[in-house]
Amino acid sequence: MSEIKRTPIAAGNWKMNLLRDSARKLIDAVKNLNYQLQGVEIIVAPPAIWLPLVQDWLSGSDVKIAGQNMHWEEKGAFTGEISPAMLKDSGCTYVLIGHSERRHKFGENDEWINKKVRSAVSSDLKPILCVGEKIEEREKGKAFEVVEKQLESAFEGLGGVEMMGVVIAYEPVWAIGTGKNALPGDAQEMHRFIREWLKKKFGEDTAQRTRIIYGGSVTPSNITEFIQEKDIDGTLSGGASIKAETFLPICKSSIKR
Ligand code: PGA
């Protein structure tokens, strides 16, 4: 099968950062860059409270918006939660699911993550499923086993058609927010493993189309090394995504040569 070209992604997960004014400034800078930049899909994931504003500020641009989390139910008595339809209504195309902070700081389990993935897909939101091992799992040689288990459970019950548009973010837990990024070669090895898994599970077409992005201490200085790797289709940055002076260079360097 001939190789399918995958548009690289530069995604920014703001986490619980930025107030209205600083959010506006960052969005204006990203929007401006987007008019000049071809061949990279830029995604911003602001805190939920800013989503409708970000939707307005970005109007007329191609920058995509992602929710950072969602509940799997459509509506109801779930205080503090946000539904897939609410995210869509606020301009989201994507939603982060199973981010390591959700898994490890808020106790999200595999069953919930699977429910969220299925709910997002059936609501026409594209999940960015985050997977990744902890440091002790890597040291024990279990990184591949852990990631495979996360993939198996997150995508349980989905078929090839539902996988269209799904993005997978490989984010080793020990690399998130620590300044210790994975070696690009090690990340490539895991991305290749994930693509092989997709092929076994859903076939060659899904494996070739699915974008697998790397996250964990991505900066303007290391982005080029990641993006050069064959199976790395972009990045999900956190700390570097909340400042224009670091996020814009990451976006610019995300073009695959
Ligand atoms: P970081 O976060 O870039 O600050 O390491 C990445 C993420 O959590 O998505």
Protein architecture, described:
This protein has 257 residues and is of the alpha/beta class. The chain has one domain: TIM Barrel (Alpha-Beta Barrel). It has an eight-stranded parallel barrel, surrounded by five helices. β1, α1 and β2 form a beta-alpha-beta unit. It is globular, with a radius of gyration of 17 Å. The chain starts with 8 loop residues before the first strand and ends in a 5-residue tail after the last helix. 2-phosphoglycolic acid (PGA) binds next to β8.
Keywords for this entry:
257 residues; alpha/beta; 11 helices; eight-stranded parallel barrel; 8 strands; binds 2-phosphoglycolic acid; single chain; globular; TIM Barrel
CATH class: Alpha Beta
Low-confidence stretches: none
Name the average pLDDT.
Answer: 97
Largest sheet: 8 strands, parallel, barrel
Going by CATH, the homologous superfamily would be Aldolase class I
N-C termini distance: 21 Å
Beta-strand percentage range: 15-25%
Radius of gyration: 17 Å
**SS elements, strand count:** 8
Helix-strand blueprint:
Elements: E1 9-13, H1 20-36, E2 41-45, H2 51-57, E3 64-67, H3 84-89, E4 92-97, H4 100-105, H5 110-122, E5 126-131, H6 135-139, H7 143-154, E6 167-170, H8 184-202, H9 204-209, E7 211-215, H10 223-227, E8 234-237, H11 244-252
Parallel strand pairs: 1-2, 1-8, 2-3, 3-4, 4-5, 5-6, 6-7, 7-8
Helix pairs in contact: 7-8
